[in-house]
Please model this.
Amino acid sequence: MKAGNHGDVVLEAKKSKLKPPPMFKVILLNDDFTPMDFVVAVLQIFFSKNREQATQIMLKVHMDGAGVCGVYPNDVATTKVEQVVAFARQHQHPLRCVMEET
Model:
């Protein structure tokens, strides 16, 4: 019985040493065709940004070639990238959205 309890203690110690899951930046990339208003709408719809925040990120994408929309766990980041790309294609825009580990 004692060995079993000791095993549980060891497991607990191992659990507490686990590092948090990696986080991923979701990034919009600039192109010469997607309208600025559409990018602002994407940021408001999929990333819950207000108009001012969305406009600032859109301008960063426009000026620097890329802008971070947010940082999320892998599964959330993957879903957001897929949603943005599908939405852009549905509206016939070539907007690109990628993710990279922080």
In short: The longest strand covers residues 66-73. Strands lie at 23-29, 66-73, 96-101.
